[in-house]
Design brief:
Elements lengths: L2 H8 L1 H10 L3 H4 L8 E6 L2 E5 L16 E5 L4 E4 L5 H12 L6 E5 L5 H4 L9 E5 H22 L13 E3 L3 E7 L2 E7 L10 E4 L4 E9 L11 H11 L6 E6 L5 H23 L4 H7 L3 H4 L4 H20 L1
Parallel strand pairs: 4-5, 5-6, 6-7, 11-12
Antiparallel strand pairs: 1-2, 2-3, 3-4, 8-9, 9-10, 10-11
Helix pairs in contact: 1-2, 7-8, 8-9, 8-11, 9-11
The protein binds zinc ion.
Zinc ion binds next to helix 5 and strand 12.
């Protein structure tokens, strides 16, 4: 998602940009984080929808969705935001819904916007896929650098907390947390190598992380696109009424189907161009991107996504 910042961090211009941004930190102090949109799905499930878009000075890095599952004696929280401050902000919102404590935190993947708020819940057991834990250990601090750069603000209390309990690649595990039955679904690498989805059969609900996003361009930066498309097909075999996506508004199965179709069409278009010997920049001109254009961050992400799909097709053709 944040490819341009990755590039900035890797060269001197980025370093200068970072220095220029630092004096602004004091101007940002005291500004309030945007409030989540609280959606009650049923008596025990709430979605906290964050603002849509890349991290910025305005949103201070708050741009992710979280899910709140209220059990008998405690709360299971899925995804915690991009900073300790955002985690605390979510904690406050949850306290307005229930007086039960957050006992479990689940991370859907290792990207900073989903994990860096974990430290706001020191008493909770953190759960993710095994691959996600490894990536948090390896890249967690890089994400704090990315956040600092995109928000122009220091985040001194933020540090990565990797999961304590993990689940292996390509597994399905039925668990009951706080008396709520759920399935931890770790697919083959899709949006990232370590995604985990949470399926609640009784609630006909899927919490998807960024495998599903609405009104926002998905990021292919760490993705395996063809297996992501397979995962989107498998989701449609389940009995689901509501999806809490990683970003954007709540989704129905019709929205899942539409995203699957867009992704499959894009991949097929890039593959057809590759087979004709075209470069990715030429292929872009042959694609119908009208549906993608309606989404947030199209300009910043579409070229990267086409390039990533192209590189994947090239790699797998050898
Ligand atoms: Zn995300």
């Amino acid at each position: 998602m944040f490819n341009s910042v990755y590039r900035l961090l890797k060269n001197q211009t980025g370093f200068l940009t970072l220095l220029l941004l630092l004096p602004m930190a004091s101007l940002q102090a005291g500004e309030e984080l945007p409030e989540p949109e609280v959606k009650k799905i049923n008596e025990r499930v709430y979605a906290l929808l964050g603002p849509i878009g890349f991290p910025s000075k305005e949103n201070q890095g708050y741009m992710v969705n979280s899910a709140v599952l209220i059990g008998d004696d405690g709360v299971v929280l899925v995804d915690t935001g991009f900073s300790d401050e955002i985690g605390q902000h979510l904690k406050k919102t949850i306290a307005g819904i229930t007086d039960k404590p957050v006992t479990h935190v689940i991370n859907t993947h290792h990207h900073g916007d989903h994990i860096l708020g974990n430290s706001a819940f020191p008493d909770a057991e953190v759960i993710s896929s095994k691959q996600c834990r490894e990536l948090v250990e390896k890249e967690g601090y890089n994400w704090i650098g990315i956040l600092k750069n995109m928000t122009g603000k220091e985040h001194p209390d933020t540090r990565p907390i990797p999961a304590k309990t993990v689940y292996p690649q390509e597994s399905h595990t039925n668990v009951t947390l706080q008396e709520i039955p759920m399935e931890f679904w770790v697919p083959a690498g899709s949006h990232t190598p370590g995604d985990m989805m949470i399926y609640l059969p009784q609630d006909k609900l899927l919490i998807s992380g960024d495998i599903l996003v609405q009104k926002m361009i998905p990021s292919f930066v760490d993705a395996h696109v063809s297996s992501w498309i397979d995962t989107l097909a498998k989701i449609q075999e389940r009995n689901i009424e509501t999806v809490v996506p990683g970003h954007g508004s709540l989704m129905t199965m019709a929205d899942v189907k539409a995203m699957h179709q867009r992704m499959a069409d894009l991949y097929a278009g890039v593959e057809a161009g590759y087979n004709q010997g075209m470069m990715d920049s030429e292929i872009r001109k042959t694609l119908d991107l009208s549906e993608w254009k309606k989404m947030k961050e199209f300009e910043g992400q579409m070229g990267v996504n086409i390039n990533r799909a192209y590189l994947e097709i090239e790699r797998e053709s050898f």
